[in-house]
Amino acid sequence: MEKNVTEAIHYRRSVRIFKSDVQLDSEKVKKCIENAVLAPTSSNLQLWEFYHVTQKDILDKLAVACLGQKAAKTSQQIIVVVVRKDLWKSRIKANLQFLKSSFGDKPRENYSNPEKFALNYYEKIMPTVYFDFLGLMGWLKFLMFQVIGLFKPTYRQVRQSDMRIVAHKSAGLAAQNFMVSMAAIGYDTCPMEGHDSLRVKKILGLPNRAEINMVIGCGVREEHGVYGSRFRIPFDEVYKKL
Question: Which of 172, 163, 166, 220 is nearest to 193 (CA)?
Fold first, then answer.
């Protein structure tokens, strides 16, 4: 029986050793990835891709690229969450097509003010925020917004490094959706920071501008696959009510 959200969150642990004799249903894992893409994403740009690895030869190569850790070596399947900030133009275009389809086929002057604002957001604001050249445009935009910020609240994270963080945050939210969905059906995961990102990209045939957000080992936990009890800083130390 599928766990509810709270049960799944409590069940989820970073499993370091998966059972070798229990196979995963690839279609069920795919359904969890479908849940992943429903995660919130900055400006709905969805600058992500999910590589669902089931082939033994590729799993073996990824295990090496993940520094030989047991969570990778014993994985039955592996999900690689990839950030594709380089696809911002096509993602903006897709959003515009969706909006225009939703608003109906009509002349521009017949759009309502909210509709015009939405279109303007993707036609002008997003290209301004995401366009850059060798990082120089990002710094110019950063300085400009700092000046504007002297007089009114404004968005300040416009440098190339800032936009990378934005894209990775969205991908991280999707990864968490995936892992909680896996926990809900009794499957286990382990998000692995320890990996050689260049080798992972080469194995998957990714372009240079793609970035590895997370490599997630998947399987069913071995009896001693979870290393110790869960530890968290006392809640009162991290919870601040204003």
Answer: 172
What size, in residues, is the chain? 242
Instruction: Give me the tens of pLDDT residue by residue for the chain, a chain 242 residues long.
Output: 899 999 999 999 999 999 999 999 999 999 999 999 999 999 999 999 999 999 999 999 999 999 999 999 999 999 999 999 999 999 999 999 999 999 997 888 899 999 999 999 999 989 988 888 777 777 888 888 888 888 988 877 778 888 899 999 999 999 999 999 999 999 999 999 999 999 999 999 999 999 999 999 999 999 999 999 999 999 999 999 99
Task: Report how far residue 178's alpha carbon sits from residue 195's, in angstroms, rounded to the nearest whole number.
Answer: 20
Task: Provide the sign of the torsion angle of the four alpha carbons 208, 46, 165, 193, taken in this order.
Answer: negative
Give CA–CA dist 15/8, Å, rounded: 14
Tell me how far the alpha carbon of residue 19 is from its chain's centroid: 27
| Euclidean distance between CA atoms 68 and 140, whole angstroms | 43
Three-state DSSP class for residue 205:
coil
